[in-house]
Amino acid sequence: MNLTLVGAAGQAAFAASANGITATPAALTFSYQIGSPTLPTAQTVQAQSSPAGLNFSVAVTGAPFNAAWLLVSASTGKAPASLKVSVNPTGLAAGSYAGVITLSATVGATAVTQTVAATLLVSTAAPSVTATPSTLNFGYVTGSPIPAPSLASAFVLSSSGAALSATLSVTGAPWLKVTPTGNVSLIGLLNTISVTVDPTGLAPKAYSGNITISTPAAVNKTTTIVVTLTVNAALPLVTGTWPAGVIQGAGQTIATVEGSAYYANSTVSVSGFTPDSTISVTDGTSTVTETFRIPVYQAATTGLRLSIASPMPSGVTGSIYSQALSATGGTAPYTYSLGGGALPAGVAFAGIGIGGTPTSAGTYSFVIQVTDSSSPALTAYSFNKITVAPSGSLGLSDKIAAAGLPLGTVGSVYGPVTLSAAGGTGGPYTWSAVNLPPGMTLSAGGVLSGTASTDGALGAVVGVVVSDTAILATLPAADLTAAGVLRLAVTTPAPGGGVSNEGQFQVYGPGPQVLAVTNSASLVQGSMAPGELISIFGLGLGPAALTIFDPSSPPIPVALPATAPSTSVTINGTAAPLLYTSATQVGAIVPHTLAGVSAQVIVTYNGIVSQPFTVAVAPVQPGVYSLAASGQGAGAILNYSVATGDYTINSNANAAARGSIVVIYMTGAGTTTSAIDNMLIAASPAVTPVLMPSAKIGGLAATVVAAQAPPGSVPGLIQLNVTVPSSAVPGPALPVVVTVGGVQSQAGLTMAVK
Predict the structure, then answer these.
(1) Rounded distance, CA 751 to CA 624, Å?
(2) In terms of Cα–Cα distance, which of 729, 738, 733, 739 is closest to 751?
(3) Residue 483 in domain
(4) How many CB atoms lie within 10 A of CB 682?
(5) Are 470 and 256 in contact (CB under 8 A)?
(6) DSSP code, position 204
(7) What is the DSSP string of 436-495?
(8) Residue 125 CB coordination number (10 Å)
(9) What does the mean pLDDT of the chain come to?
(10) Half-sphere exposure of 399 (CA within 13 A, CB side)
(11) What are phi and psi of 478, to 5 degrees?
């Protein structure tokens, strides 16, 4: 604020004469604001005399320092004359200063004088505004919680000089907020202004906005705070692919790379290829083969990955199994878990490995997932398998190695790792291998060594980002000519981003590929029982179109369709009756003659035979059918009305009354009173399971009124007529469990009771 003080003499111009000399005006006033770059304008005093022509002198008096700030253009003169009066207020504090200009002359012997009063008004400096700091920078990683401390900050607003008002506003940044906005009074105190940013929905890049502080009364009328928000893309994460793979030699394929933190500029590449290596061992009489997958990486690779190859060392039923797991990259410590498939029954993840006592022989394929300790956590996964041999088996088997197989590194010597075998004639054993990673060899004595020469990377592929969780990757036919695993990585450029973990896309060898054998009702894998209805999942199992057994044309066939190319299934060398076939799923009936501790399931399609798939054999493997054919949720259960004889589907809208009878369908009850497995069930005699099933509904025992194969149905299907417990607690999803021979059906199956 500028303050002007006016002297008592005012600014009225008048002619004052005394003793013959006159000065006009009689008073001068000057105004100055501290800090002003220019001095006050000079003013003029007119000096006249009577008689004319008098000589005069000029003197200046006043404070401080005898009015050194007051300047007159001449110290003597002859009237009439013009005198220029100026001031230099430099160094003076704010206030009012008075000075006197005296003109002196002599008329004859008489001295005459005339005075001019000079007033200098010095006002305080104009206020200025300061914002500290003058720039604010925020960083955010997509997917992180909002708000976070890094998304809030502040600056200090202060002023010098007189009080003033400031107006705060934001321009060019809807994600930016300043508090308070509008008018702020500045009186020299420190004002803390809060600034927050909200990065919700912002794509990764650097954003800039301004906070404008408007102070019209200040020297600096506008002050700007520049705010920068850098949204960094999270590291992309691959969680899987769809489909999981294709048959070797397939044409160009579009695969969905599933995951998170994908953006429009994310790209996909085949970052490596792990070939399917076939390793064989013979005792001179028998030969056993196994598929090995030994991934090879560049030495500089830093991404999170499992550092154990496939298969893992084999186990034996009834014997303790324990294998450590390991990973590299990311941030230790690591946590391991099952990412898909199934471990051998009795074996589970524990700490940094897997362990337990296998109870069922077979080949178990599964996905190992590793999670690191970074924030947010990173994950990676890989396919693996374990073969569990029956206890006391004398057959030839490859035991792989004492510990998990390590990964390979380009340019570094592998191992060496010595493979082992057991059974058969007891040796000596001779080893051979086909399609090992380039540069690696297997000696006849079973020593795996060499120096890998390539990681198999094939480079970028065409990728279309569909959403932040899916990218469509076009895999050219040239990348699908060899059996193995294409390792797919997603890269998101800066800011942030980086290279993801590797997704696994399998290229299966030619011919049928059996991936899982499950109970057709529960979809549980691991074991199968005589007479059980099973579902075989895989690739290349049959024709593209679903082909179903025609029940009007018995017997149940052992090949579908009837004309080539057709699918057939053998279980321990015995042909299994088929219910349906397709490229990815086959339905079959386990022969009633099945015996032993394990069975080899082999699928043949179009004359090409699959690798044997080992499944444990159990007396019973009960599974209850569900409405969604998923083995979970609402069961495929019928309500029976005694009054009308009608059957209706049990549901939340059609719950079964307590004390009423419901019909439950199951398979895997084991041997029945009929050993015929290729003919539809006759009306008489009744076919019943040898072991009587029991049931629980809502955790309470439910009376099984009858248990038999429905006439006209395929062998392996069992119908249970069950009375709903009268004390059951009504509800839309009471658990239903069927037990046969001490073995329970799958968990997660329910029914509605009112």
Answers:
(1) 12
(2) 733
(3) no
(4) 13
(5) yes
(6) S
(7) PSTTEEE-TTSEEEEB-------EEEEEEEEETTEEEEEE-GGGGSSSEEEEEEEEEPSS
(8) 15
(9) 90
(10) 16
(11) -65, -25
Compute the average pLDDT of residues 518-528: 92
- Say if residues 188 and 169 touch (Cβ distance below 8 Å): no
Report pTM: 0.66
At residue 19, the pLDDT reads: 56
Amino acid identity, position 205:
K
**CA triplet 117, 119, 125: central angle to 5 degrees?**
170
Chosen domain end from 172, 197, 232? 232
Alpha carbon separation from 546 to 566, 568, 602 (Å, rounded): 12, 14, 20
Residue 81, token pair as written in the block? 């004359």
Residue 678's CATH number? 2.60.40
Cα–Cα nearest to 293, from 371, 372, 383, 229:
383
Half-sphere exposure of 135 (CA within 13 A, CB side): 4
pLDDT band, residue 509 (cuts 50/70/90): confident
For 256, 555, 601, 653, 666, the CA distances from 688, given in Å and listed in that order, are 47, 20, 27, 32, 12
Last residue of a domain, one of 198, 232, 266: 232
Q: Where are the beta strands (DSSP E) in 496-606?
A: 498-508, 513-519, 527-528, 533-539, 547-548, 567-571, 574-575, 578-581, 585-589, 598-605
- The verdict on residue 709 lying in a domain is yes
Task: Provide the sign of the torsion angle of the four alpha carbons 46, 50, 54, 60, taken in this order.
Answer: negative
- Which pLDDT score, from 0 to 100, does residue 188 have? 63
Yes or no: say if 288 and 396 are a contact pair by the CB < 8 Å rule.
yes
716/666 Cα distance (integer angstroms): 8
Of the candidates 613, 526, 519, 531, the one whose C-alpha atom is nearest the C-alpha of residue 572 is 613
Q: Which helix (H) or strand (E) holds 707?
A: strand 704-708
In this structure, are strands 43-49 and 81-87 parallel, antiparallel, or unpaired? antiparallel
Q: Please write the tens of the pLDDT for every residue from 586-635.
A: 999 999 999 988 888 999 999 989 888 888 899 999 999 999 999 999 99
**Tokens 């956590």 label which residue?**
377
Please name the residue that has the structure tokens 């009489």: 285
The rounded percent of the chain whose pLDDT value lies above 90 is 71
Residue 535, phi then psi, degrees to nearest 5: -115, 125
Domain span holding position 52: 16-123
Percentage of the chain lying above the pLDDT 70 cut? 96
Q: Give strand pairing partners of 254.
A: 474
How far apart CA 611 and CA 289 sit, in angstroms, is 9
- Average pLDDT of 366-381? 91
What's the rounded Cα separation, in Å, for the pair 272 and 500?
Answer: 13
**Burial grade of 180 (CB within 10 A; 0-12, 13-18, 19 or more):** exposed
Say how many C-beta atoms besides its own lie within 10 A of residue 692's C-beta. 12
Distance between first and last Cα of the chain: 84
Q: Are residues 671 and 728 in the same domain?
A: yes
CA angle, corner 582, sides to 577 and 583, nearest 5? 130
- Number of compact structural domains in the chain: 4
Q: Residue 32 belongs to a domain with what CATH number?
A: 2.60.40.10
127-184 pLDDT tens trace: 888 899 999 999 999 988 887 767 899 999 888 766 788 899 998 899 999 988 777 7
Question: What 3-state DSSP class applies to 151?
Answer: helix
Largest CA distance in the chain: 165
Say if residue 609 is in the same domain as residue 680.
no
Q: By the 8 A CB rule, do 14 and 46 touch?
A: no
